[in-house]
Amino acid sequence: MQNNRAKKMYDYHVWANQQVIQHLKQLPDRVYNETVKSVFSSISDVLIHLYATDITWLETMKGSSFHDTVREVERRKSEASGASVDELEVFYDALSKEFYSFLAEQQDPERIIITEHPQYGRSEFILADLIHHVVNHGTYHRGNVTAMLRQQGERGVPTDYVFFLY
C-alpha cells in the first residue's frame, strides 16, 4: 500500500505522536504522570490508552480473533504500563514499524475486513476506513493531552494535519 491517502494519514498519525512525545520529553518528569481532573487521570494514561487502541485496530486489520486481540492488547498494555516517556517512545516506535510492515503487504486499501465481536456481531470495514479511524482516534486523544498540559501550566505542541503537510 504505497502512496495512497490512508498511508499518508497513518504517516501523519506517527508524526503527530512523535511531536507529542518529543515535547513531553522536554517538560519536567512530573507532568507525564501528574494526576489531573480530566477524561483520563494522567497524560501517561492517555498515551497508554492510545497505544493499546492502536494495537487493537492493527490486530483487527490483520484478521486476529476478538479473543486473541484482547490477549495481545492486555499483554502489551501491561508491558507498557508504568513506562517512562522514553520507554513509551520505544513501544510506539515498534508499533509503528508493525503497522508499516502490515501496510506494505496490502495491495488494496479498499479491501473489506470482516470482524466478529461478541457484543456487536459480524462487521465489515474497508481497510482505509479503519486506518482513518486510528488516525482520528489519535487526534482526539492528542487533544486531551494538550488540555491536560494546559491544566498543569504547560503549553501543548501543534499537531494539526496542516503542520504535518508543511
From TrEMBL:
Species of origin: Metabacillus herbersteinensis
Presence of keyword Cell division: no
Record's protein name: DinB family protein
Keywords associated with the record: Metal-binding
UniProt xrefs under Pfam families: DinB (PF05163)
Record-stated family: Belongs to the DinB family.
Transmembrane intervals: none
InterPro entries recorded: DinB, DinB/YfiT-like
